[in-house]
Amino acid sequence: MERLTFYFRNAALSLLRARRRAVFAVFTVVVGVAAIVGLQLTADVLESSLTSNVRTLLRGDLAVSKEGGETSSGFTSEELAAIQALEDEGVIDGFTVRGTPGSDFADFAKFKLTVVGRTDSDAVTAFYAPTFLEYDVFPYYGEVSSGGQGLWDLIKDEFDVVVTSNLANRHNIDVDDQLKLSGVDELFTVRGILSSAALGRAADPLQGNVVFRQDTIDRLFPDLKDPVSDIYILAPDADGEQLARIDERLEAISPLIESTTPAELEVSNQDAADDLRTIILIFGLVALAIGGIGIANTMQVLVSRRLPEAGVLKAIGLKGRQVMAVFLAEALIIGVVGSAIGVVAGLGVSFGTLRVMEGIANQNLGWSVGAGPIFTGLIVGVLVTLAFGLLPTAGAGRVRPMAAIRPNDSDLVKGSWLTSTLLLLALAAVMGVMVGVLLGTLQWGLIGTLGAFVGVGLLLLILIGIVYLLSRLPTFRWLTLQLSFLEWRRRKARAASLLLAMSIGVLGIGLILMLADTVLSGLTNSVEDVVGGDVVLAVNDPAEKEQAYATIREADGVTLFSPGAIYDTRLTAINGDPGELESRINSAEADRGGLDAEELQRVEDFFSVVNTRTVDAALPRLVFPSDGGRMLDETDVGRNTVVLQALSEQPATKWLALQVGERISLQAVDRDDRGVGDPVEFEVIGISSESAIGVTVFGTIMTANDPFEEQGIPPAANVAIVAVDDAKRADLVRDLNLQFDSVLVLEVAAFVDLFAELLDQIRIVPLTLSGLVLLAAVVIVANAVALSTLERRKEIGLLKAVGAKARWITVQLVFENTLLGFVGGLIGLALAFGVLVATSILMGFDVVASPTIIAAVLALAIVLSATVTLFSAVPAARERPLDILRGE
Amino acid sequence: MPENGDQMTENGVVLQGDGLTKQFRSGDLVVDALRGVDITIKRGEIVAIIGPSGSGKSTLMGILGGLDSLTEGRLEVGGVDVTSMGENQLAEIRNAYIGFVFQQFNLMPTLTAVENVALPIQFASTRKFNPRERATELLTTFGLQDRLKNRPSQLSGGEQQRVAIARALANDPPLLLCDEPTGALDTENGNLVLDTLFQAQAKLGTAVIIVTHDPRVAERANRTLVMTDGRFGPAG
Prior knowledge:
The complex is a heterodimer of chains A (about 900) and B (about 240).
Chain A lengths: L1 H16 L1 H33 L2 H5 L3 E5 L10 H13 L4 E6 L5 H6 L2 E3 L8 E2 L3 E5 L11 E2 L2 E2 H4 L5 E5 H7 L6 E4 L6 E7 L14 E5 H7 L7 E7 L5 H14 L3 E4 L1 H44 L1 H9 L4 H42 L9 H27 L19 H23 L2 H30 L7 H12 L1 H40 L3 E5 L2 H13 L3 E17 L3 H10 L9 H10 L2 E4 L28 E4 L7 H4 L7 E7 L5 E13 L13 E3 L3 H4 L6 E8 L1 H14 L3 E5 H44 L1 H9 L4 H38 L7 H28 L2 H7 L1
Parallel strand pairs in A: 5-11, 8-10, 16-20, 17-19
Antiparallel strand pairs in A: 1-12, 1-13, 2-5, 2-12, 3-4, 3-9, 6-7, 8-11, 9-10, 14-21, 14-22, 15-16, 15-18, 15-21, 17-20, 18-19
Chain B lengths: L4 H4 L4 E14 L2 E14 L3 E5 L6 H8 L7 E6 L2 E2 L5 H11 E4 L11 H10 L8 H11 L15 H12 L6 E5 L7 H18 L2 E5 L3 H6 L2 E6 L2 E3 L3
Parallel strand pairs in B: 3-8, 3-9, 6-7, 7-8
Antiparallel strand pairs in B: 1-2, 1-4, 4-5, 9-10
Helix pairs in contact in B: 4-5, 4-6, 6-7
């Protein structure tokens, strides 16, 4: 007991004597444990929200959707009738629906929304999700409320609506504002602002929702094409088996119908939660492992500084293991204190992360603190600290007792490669078991950890090589650079570990930023290539068409006006033969005996809209393969020729093996998909290459002729593309929107902005996780610098004794560490770029390396390195030389 | 291994070294630090070892104290051959039978005077004393009764060295090895430390080997051995 008291009292007092270094060491543990605890608590809450109250998540006893979701058409009237039949039969107690205009552009164009009484550019929008819910019925389970009032307490009158906060914030919409839908004389009144999370699965996180009463929409827009996108089934008395049977009956209605039971949702959500937990834990463990490097560094320096002390302890009779215990007690205290603080910080991390996730997931997630993650955090934090502290403290145990008499000898520790290797293996095994237990797979935990150890070891060797090579670069007799390189060479392993920490820290942030930038710029390029203008418009009321077009033609700054029309169509024959179409459907994907129902739906979707175009600069700049033909040109005006824009996610042309030169027959259809007029035969003159980021405007089929108009068939909508000077664009958009009730005007840039906003939201979580890793890396840098100043105390004293000023020493320390931070940042960015290029080769997109992002990430690495160096450099440089030299 | 110092010193010989040889290797270079030194130390004897820098004094000190291993030769402490003892056995020998006094005091900076002195007793495999009582008694004997709870940084150099002597004597070892005990002290404090050392030696009957450059120490020793080039020469 006396010995134990001595170990811990001595350890505590020793750490107090080396306060600053102890604080940094504690921080390295704090960051790792905070990451583990915070992310585990987050995973627990997410898992609980995903797997408990599944009926609330489903909003019913079963939830039914159509395959392809909102990119496909909604439920047909036949399908709805079949579900109604189930209710009539008594199989289910009832059902309610969620409606939306879906993907039909003509329907979408009808829901232009204007805030009455405003004339600013935010007053009009079509970028939102009109959501129609059955009055006083939806939802069967759970509540939708705002400010303590339920959804149907807010929406009472048939022209009451509620708006989600993301949409309200973007367009400055308040309670009691009046909203106008194009073509509807009555005004709607905003009765409440819902949190984005309130609608759960019915929410549109990108655009935001406006919730209407379904009966109102049915009355105002009786011709909407299949607006029901989701169906919620009520069967409260059905047990699991009965629900499974109802599930079968629902899915038997159509192969495209996907029904979800609570049990199915629970299983799929549990799988998702498990995957999420694994990813989250890996991030946490990486942060902790980086923290471990900091512990190893700290203990290494603490021990090496006190080897003579260890020698004296041996001289007075302490055995090797007892001397080791003296130092290991310090690691243990660092581990316990760091883990305890880390747990508290982890609570904060989980709270913050969950609030961020609520915004993205559109779901109230709450916050709860379970004992498991706290216990795990404490155990893992202490174990990792001890494990990483073991190797350096083992050195203290192997110190030669002669160190008491000859403290300046170079070989104070008995070298033992065998012991070090065995310790490293033991360390890897302990970490492997721990990781295995945390991930729930011991085998992969061990294999993964051993692999990571070997990988990090190799990486360190490479980085040591890089440090050596860099330190041999010309210095141009610049003393600061010379001393920096000298220091790098002298402590290659330390410099390499700092590079490793910084490069891993920068890798995550750099990769996420570059990936998002690549995706966004790919989308922007695709949109620019496909749209061919700045503004897209649709005219619902033919009476407004000529006047609106005249306004555009006369508007300032308009450089291109390209009018056209869209028709709802269906494919009836290939090469004039309906049998040929049938045969190609059946022979496509031959090994499976033809296309399945979902693929067939995709083929139907592909041929569901024909866009008549003006031949001008607004035509999309599509890429055609060598046998893919060409774009429309002047020779196609007045001829029934079409160009097909192939899409990788909708490969209808591939499935039907369509070739340039073949003929396809397309017939116009009405709102109920009934054929109107005669089928028109078009010659296919071009099939574009599939693009990875598929952007289309007005469908995938373009022609320079309008044979449907010749048959007297009205278009689903008149559409146009306008190119206008940037400075005049906002005015034109606002004027058209406000002057013409039925004219929907969309800014291409606004669409890209919305997508960018979504990307921003999506990347918050990985950025937060990467931020934690970067934080761990920065703490390592701070720690390494603090240790370095300690090791060089004598050198600093000598420099000051020969006349070096404190400022010069500070600059020297900041320079050499910031230079390392910069190199670490470069390596991290290079690794991120490598990962991005590898991904791009697999996924087929062009990588964008934005100089702004590269510069920003490097600047971040430089600023962080310089800042944390200052913390240690300034006090070290201010010490009086006499104090230093006496003390050393 | 003998059980205690009294048994060990029954024949009067505390330490016996025959042909003590130590070589250091650095690549192809071999340095003979000790060249077959023979030494016998009897109970209660005070032996001063003097010699120029690099003559092998500290190496000999390390060998005699079981801090370093021999290249050749044989060493007995209290009649027990320690030449080929393992690390842990040597640690027990050092703890029970040898006290060290270093030039730089080498006290644990985190511990108080009394805790420093009590430390070797706490780690003894067989305890002869209550650590705190023994430490207080020794420090009081050395006139440090008012400094019991002071840390090394709160003590003067002379006081620190006296605490170090108390620590060296804590387990009542038959042999005290002192490496330049006055080397870091001014004359007044040096004299005070030597007085303390010799008084304790006279009272406890401990054999003392002192490696020193200080002629005052040599004057007060029973024997003076002069070391040159790794071996003893005639006393000057």
